[in-house]
Amino acid sequence: MRIRFLGADRQVTGSKHLLESGPVKALVDCGLYQERPYLDRNWDSFPVSPGTIDVIFLTHAHLDHCGYIPKLVKDGFAGRILATPATAELAEIVLLDAANIQEEDAAFKKKRHAREGRRGPHPEIPLYTVDDVALAMTHFTPVSYDDPVEVDAGVVVRFREAGHILGSAMVAVDTRNGGPPRRLIFSGDIGPWEKPIIHEPALFEAADYVVMESTYANRNHEDADRIEERLAGIINQTAARGGNVVVPVFALERAQELLFYLGRLVRSGMIPRLPVFLDSPMAAEVTAIFARYPSLLDPEAEELVRSGVQPFDFPGLRLVRSIEESKAINALKTPCMILAGSGMCTAGRVKHHLTRNISRPESTVLFVGYQANHTLGRQILDRRPSVRIFGQAYEVRAEVERIQAFSGHAGQSDLLRWLRAFKTPPRRLFLVHGEEEVSLDLARFLEGDGWSVSVPVYDEAFELD
Question: Could you tell me if 185 and 263 lie in one domain?
């Protein structure tokens, strides 16, 4: 048995872990890289021939976990993609949105490069198209939580609740190939406890090997009880200055959680009824899917849905679908709030809204999700004097705020809570999906408690047993 790490190794995005057990080659997640130093890997040939991979276990539908699937299929992957039903639905929306953005960005880049008389480092073509996504979706096989699925003789997989986003799962792989049984657990992204909307993550008591995310392994989030107070304060102060609040938002989960809190604030009168634009067709579609899976929601949100109350709607909310409607927001003379993708400002409509607001002292850029190293979002969050957007430099003069309590990732104490549910430490714990020093900090801490921990580098392989 062998595991090879092909993404999210000492950095955050591009999750891909190749497990070989007997004759089975399984890829756990198949995500896009979003940090700038690693973008070339999206275009490079995949390190393993796609046609030799039998199955993909998809933990959830975020782009850094599923966004490379159409490219892998286009290049020869012909196996099954196992995912929960909600993840399968959400992945289609996410991947179609990604394909549309890539097609739009490729056309925009081609026009800009022609105007500037130069060529960029990548072809002026999309990584994949909407037709490639349609083909990829034919490979999906929905799997319910806790149902055992025999992938091959001697390999059984189960999906368990991860508490990260709707339909997110941890993957438990049980193997028996001529030797003693072994259990491997891939955490995917672990959600925090005591958050609205989604159920809490599952716990395990035993495993031989564990691959765990470590995004926030060195710190805890703000107290969730302060979210409404902080959000109201930022909105009210920005509106009083006559500015706009621009929120780079992940269309999946963060957008719905933010709408959930904004609805509360509007209905309680804690913020004025200013226009709130959800400028993301994908986020609008995702929000509709939530209503189709009430059993996956936590008790409060489930009860609202079943009683006919829409927890993600409120007076003043406007869903923006067309490009023309998006452009029209810029003509508004009064303060407003704009929620637009992408969450790390790597692509999409938020970049256009940033060009209009990043240099306005009256406006605020509010981050409610993780900003990976080297992304535009991280540069703004680090308050660089200027940033480049669409090839042009813009001074960062807007207020920059962050509410960490919105994160869908477990903080340090929650990660330790998850690990300490194991009655004995596994033979080895692999830490992935975290910036290098963050993962190494947690590794050193756990090694002091007697755990055997590895923080793999890109393309590193380990023989298990």
Answer: no
Residue 115 has pLDDT above 90, yes or no: no
User: Is residue 19 located within the same domain as residue 93?
Assistant: yes
Domain count, the chain: 2
Query: Percent of the chain, pLDDT > 70?
Result: 98
Q: 122 with 105, same domain? A: yes
Contacts of 30 (CB under 8 A, 6+ apart): 15, 16, 56, 58, 65, 66, 67, 68, 69, 72
21 and 134 both lie in a single domain = yes
Give the span between the Cα atoms of 97 and 89, in whole angstroms. Answer: 13
Note the pLDDT tens digit of each residue in 217-226.
Answer: 999 988 878 8
Question: Using one digit for the tens of pLDDT, what is the confidence trace for 239-271?
Answer: 999 999 999 998 888 898 999 899 989 989 999
Domain finish residue from 406, 431, 449 = 406
d(CA 202, CA 199): 9
Look up the domain containing 101 and give its range: 2-219+408-463
- Amino acid at site 304: L
Helix (H) / strand (E) element for 387: namely strand 386-389
325-361 CB burial, b ≥16 within 10 A, e <16: ebeebeeeeebbbbbbbbbbbbbbbbbbbbeebbebe
Sheet holding 317-319, edge to edge: 317-319, 276-279, 337-340, 245-248, 364-367, 399-402
pTM of the model: 0.86
CATH number at residue 455: 3.60.15.10
421 plus 360 within the same structural domain? no
Over the stretch 397-448, which tens digit does the pLDDT of each residue have? 999 999 988 888 999 999 999 999 999 999 999 999 999 999 999 999 999 9
Distance, CA of 307 to CA of 312 (rounded, Å): 14
57 Cβ neighbours under 8 A, 6+ residues apart: 26, 27, 28, 29, 82, 83, 157, 171, 173, 186
Q: Mean per-residue pLDDT for 7-19?
A: 97
The reply to whether 149 and 257 lie within a common domain is no
Same domain, 49 and 89: yes
Please indicate, yes or no, whether residues 454 and 360 belong to a single structural domain of this protein: no
The Cα 381–Cα 371 span in angstroms is 8
Instruction: Specify the CATH number for the domain of residue 343.
Output: 3.40.50.10890
φ/ψ of residue 255, rounded to 5: -60, -45
Mark which of 379, 406, 433 sits at the end of a domain: 406
Burial of 424 (0-12, 13-18, 19+ CB in 10 A): exposed
b/e code 48-74 from CB counts within 10 Å (16+ = b):
bebeebbbbbbbbbbbbbbbbbbbbbb
